[in-house]
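DOMAIN: structural biology
WANTED: fold as tokens
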Amino acid sequence: MKPMRLKLLTFGLPLILSFLMSVDCSAPKEVIPSLAATDQPLYSCGGDNSGRYYKMIEGFVIGKNGRAYLWDQVNFDGIDVYDDAGKFLLNFGRPGQGPDELQNFSAATLDSNGNFLASTFGRKALKIFTPEGKLKGEIPLPDEISRGYVSKMILAPEDSLYLRIESEAGDVSIYNFNLREHRVKLIHEEKRRKEPSFIRFAPDMAVDDHCNIYVADVFDYKIYVYSPDGKLIRIYENKKAKKEPIIDSDFNTIGDDFKTVIRLDFYQMLMAELEGPSRYFPVVFGLNIDRDRLYVWTSERDNLNRYVIDIFDLNFRKRGRASYFNWIKRNLAQIVGGRLYIPNIENYDINLTRQLGRLSLFNPPEKLNVYPVR
């Protein structure tokens, strides 16, 4: 076990029950089930079992065969590949300037053949690696895409590559890049939200099997659905949902001793840079699509400080609600084949999580946990 590993781990069912019993029975709250069907993960990628250790897992890609491709956001040392049982298989794309190396790596996705497409900041091409980690070639990027920072990519059927591009000014654009015809189409733009990079919120996106893309609004409970050619198909809106303001305590984080809670020294400067609607969290910060289900991560939290997820079919008929831990700054969850893939950020220490701000993580994401979805 790494020495710096945080000791604030899940305390289990007894703590949860003791907390629930302490709640005033005169004002019962809705009990929202966990999105994870089991308390313990089916398996984990990273940590002692694999011999691979990470400081922060923020991005990863899951293949249809259950393979996991993940990397360390802090100490990037290439792409690590795990099988569908959490066994480490190989590493490729180490940092460097060589043809098969990745310098300033930013985002990735997989194609239908399991090839790994990698974007690096400042490079006007995507690198393609085989499932075995061998460099296969490059895909040149159009000028519209290569001018910004690729923060997320999804390769849909029929070679439709969706890219979320962020500019230094904070603007966000989503494009559909047809790899066969080398044709690019602007799908969605977001220029309204202005904030410092530390608390920047980009609209999340998810794609269904028909190549339609679902894009979350950065303010309200709105989800935009576009066809691959950029036609707006529909807008789903929940007008009853309320925006929650960003407050001083949202800048609380864990101190260097991993025990005390401190507030960022420069939080007042960050708060001063927020204006108008940008002083509020987005109502919807994450989207996932798995088969015929749309999972909408909202800023609402349950009594265990887990985020509430609205579950719809793809026609926006409500199918239920669930809750789980996530990061409001960026959706860290992926749901593939009825399984939830998410870094180990869960924490059931209610006293601690109530003190920590929503801009902080409850645990350092050092490994990737895999759960069955309820």
Notes: Residues 1-28 have pLDDT under 50 and may be disordered.
